[in-house]
Amino acid sequence: MLPVLLAGCQDAASSAGKYSTGGDPTDSPCARVVSAIGYAGLMLGPKGQEERQHFEDALTGRLAEVHGITREFGGRLPGSLSGAVETVETTTAGLSRNDVPRERRVALLKSYRAAADRIVAGCA
């Protein structure tokens, strides 16, 4: 049997210091949370039309990412945003589950959007 040699396709220097999602460890906590909010927002319908939102798996995954990133970095945001951070953590916990009834998800989405907007504005 011949030995198998595996070589990496990626230059180690090009990925050093990067998260798997492309973020940089030197990014500020605000940058990390606002980026996650923006990424999820790309799949959200227009504000005021939450009742028409489709909660497909891809959106659920992005909201789960917002949940995790907010839990990780939210405590390091300005203290004035603590209420909004708590709301984003709570709402995304429900929004990232497919077993939550649609009516509840719509209500959570409305609360999430208001709190997420406060974080984005407070981090600007």
Question: Your description of this structure?
Answer:
This protein has five helices and no strands. The longest helix is centred in the last third of the chain and has 22 residues. With about 120 residues, the protein is mostly helical. Helix content is about 55%, strand content about 0%.
Order of SSEs: HHHHH
Kindly provide the radius of gyration, computed on alpha-carbon positions and rounded to a whole number of angstroms. 18 Å
Q: Mind summarizing the main beta sheet? A: none
The 3D shape can be described as globular
What is the helical fraction, as a range of percent? 55-70%
Strand content: under 5%
**Low confidence ranges:** 6-15
- Gap from first CA to last CA: 61 Å
**Total number of helices:** 5
Number-wise, the strands total: 0
Average pLDDT level: 87
Which structural class is indicated by helix and strand composition? Answer: mainly alpha
